[in-house]
Amino acid sequence: MFGIGFPELVVIFIVALVVLGPERLPEVARSLAKLVNEFRHAADELKKELGADALEEGRSELEKVRQELLKKVYVPPAAPEPEQVKDLKGQAQDQKKEDKPPEDPKDQALENSISDAQDSHEKTI
Known about the structure:
Layout: H1 6-73, H2 82-98, H3 105-124
């Protein structure tokens, strides 16, 4: 605390006792304690106020930077024209008609064995 040690505090107390006297020393000590307490409270409030202002300023600066980055980097996709949507739907339907589901090898083998059985049956008749 201001580089004052215990010996210096004792000297200050003795000088104050001699100058002020034993009757007024407790009153002055209380007044001095209240003054120091109010000064600390005011300093804390000032720190909080400056900290809150700096914090709010930092947040607004971050928001500005965020908006700038979004403008530079993010480009929202444009909505397709109604004609394009119709064309795409038509192409998708055409593709579905052209695409046949892949044949299962088991189904192919079954069809082969059925046709072989029919051929052999016809030959026997």
